[in-house]
Amino acid sequence: MSDQAVRGTTTGGRRAVGPVPDRALLRATALAHLARFGTTRAGLTQVLERRVQRWARRAVEGGELSEEVESRTAPLGAVIAQVVADMVELGAVDDAAFAGSRARSLTRSGRSRRAVQAHLAARGVEAETVGAVLDDALGARGQDGQDVELAAALIFARRRRAGPFAPAGEGDEDAVSGDEAAVRRRKVLDAMARAGFGRATAEAALDMDPEEAEDRIIRMKSA
């Protein structure tokens, strides 16, 4: 293979970067991404926009004028929107299904309802969909929802080796002074507050009997 073939052909000193992405290429990009990852409408839109941006950057680096590149890529916003709509129609993109699956997964890893809500919003899921999904996946803000939130707080505490999951003897006054224990507890409570857990939920998690704590976690994860 010639050096020119390896580098790519050039025209007038410009390096060829291939044709501007069209609907067929963007559709293939979408399908390849969805074969590996779950995502939302907004997430897939960003994937396709980055694909176009990479082409545009290479085109400018290859010597094309920025104005020419912009004029060629400007119409692709509508093309991307149509490709995303096609994926929704095919069922390959479903914001509600994605949000439900992600909400359950994050909660079982010790994320608070508030943190899950923020995560889904950042992924582009509409607020109305987020609210409905959280009620369905995690329980409404009644007893069921509180039980799930408490189990998530317990998982968080277990990761921090705090409360019912503290190492044996840590609560012994001979091993840890009252002041030191109070400082440790306050640090854990502060961390739980930053993670989105309410004070009452955090306190209940830290004060729970170890056997009950493990049982609650098992019940939540097996639900």
From TrEMBL:
Residues 94-134 form the RecX second three-helical domain. It is found in: Cytoplasm. The keyword Cytoplasm applies. GO terms for cellular component: cytoplasm. Its main location: cytoplasm. Keywords: Cytoplasm. Gene3D superfamilies: Winged helix-like DNA-binding domain superfamily/Winged helix DNA-binding domain (1.10.10.10). It holds the Pfam family RecX_HTH2. Signal peptide: none annotated. Belongs to the RecX family. This is Regulatory protein RecX. The lineage of its organism: Bacteria, Pseudomonadati, Pseudomonadota, Alphaproteobacteria, Acetobacterales.
